[in-house]
Amino acid sequence: MKNKALKRLIFGLLALPVCFSLFSFTIIPSVPTDTVVNNGFKFKTVIVDAGHGDKTTGPGHFSRGADGTFSTERQVTLAVALKLQKAIEKNIVGVNAILTRKTPEDVSFERRAEIANESKGNLFISIHCNSLPERTIRERVGTKRGRGVYKTVRVADRSGKGVLMLIYALKRTREQQNEIKSNTLEEDIENGGVDPNDPETIILTNEYNRKFRVRSITMANILANQFVDTDGRRLEGIREQSLYVLCHAAMPSVLVEIGYINNAEEEEYLNSEEGQEAIVNTIVRSIQAYKDKVEQVVR
């Protein structure tokens, strides 16, 4: 294995922010400019994933997503993703944004992760809309012999409100380690493929995995603060979830639930130009803050 792999990893580890609680939303204060130097790492590529899509035939796994009263999750996420790609490339110098889908046609979970890895992304952002399942209530339908008669019915739960950030669950760590071996280490290996039993491979894989997880939490915290402090949005938190696209992307990854599409007020916001612009601007600010952080190391 080439020495550049170890050098890059060492610099990357030095650049890691302190790992705060998964449910903490405080950004570490900026360090004075005279104590910071560039660590050699260049943040160049963001993968923008528009969740779901119109169902297609073909191999892989698909999901149509949630429905609102007059719109669908797959429509909203594509509209936001297209705007986000343009805003990233316009406002963040030197950063390229790659979409996993550009049309209403769906892309399988497997292909989304492949696109991210083939593009050597430095950050994976997946855009989704949240929705609550129906709830069960008992409803009185009449009277019999002086006693009420009830039946159980299911009704829509439209009480959800706010944004939520998801990162991959620890129980799927092995899957990301496999993707790291296949997509991150291969360029650092001389004379062929990766030997999974080689001690150096094991060390590098574990450290990349740890670095990606810490950076995923860092990005999720930055997003959380930006949505709350700048946009005044309600925050549901940062959670772990076993999601295919997150654990199979060999890079820091965050899924952003931008609002509840089955809440009438939030659906209006998610479909409005004002709402989509605010969401895009918040994500762009967060990416810029994240980029500044990972490209620096404290002396």
Compose a concise summary of this entry.
By secondary structure, this protein is α/β, with parallel strands linked by helices.
- In terms of DSSP E residues, the strand content is 15-25%
Helix content: 25-40%
H/I helix tally: 8
Counting DSSP E segments of at least 2 residues, the number of strands comes to 10
Q: Given the helix and strand composition, which structural class is it?
A: alpha/beta
Please trace the helix and strand order, writing H or E for each element: HEEHEHEEEEHHEHEHHE
Low-confidence segments: 13-34, 188-192
What is the radius of gyration? 22 Å
Amino- and carboxy-terminal Cα gap: 28 Å
Largest sheet: 6 strands, mixed
Mean pLDDT over the full residue set: 81
Shape: elongated
Main-sheet strand order equals: 3-2-4-9-7-8
This entry's quaternary arrangement is single chain
Written description of the protein model:
The protein has 299 residues and is α/β, with parallel strands linked by helices. Helix content is 39%, strand content 21%. The chain contains 8 helices and 10 strands. A 6-stranded mixed beta sheet has the order 3-2-4-9-7-8, with helices on both faces. β5 and β6 form a beta hairpin. The longest helix has 31 residues. The relative contact order is 0.21. About 9% of the residues have low confidence.
Give me the secondary-structure topology:
Elements: H1 3-14, E1 36-38, E2 45-50, H2 73-91, E3 96-99, H3 109-118, E4 123-130, E5 135-144, E6 147-155, E7 163-168, H4 173-183, H5 199-229, E8 235-241, H6 244-247, E9 253-260, H7 264-271, H8 273-294, E10 296-298
Parallel strand pairs: 2-3, 2-4, 4-9, 7-8
Antiparallel strand pairs: 1-10, 5-6, 7-9
Helix pairs in contact: 1-5, 2-8, 4-5, 5-8, 7-8
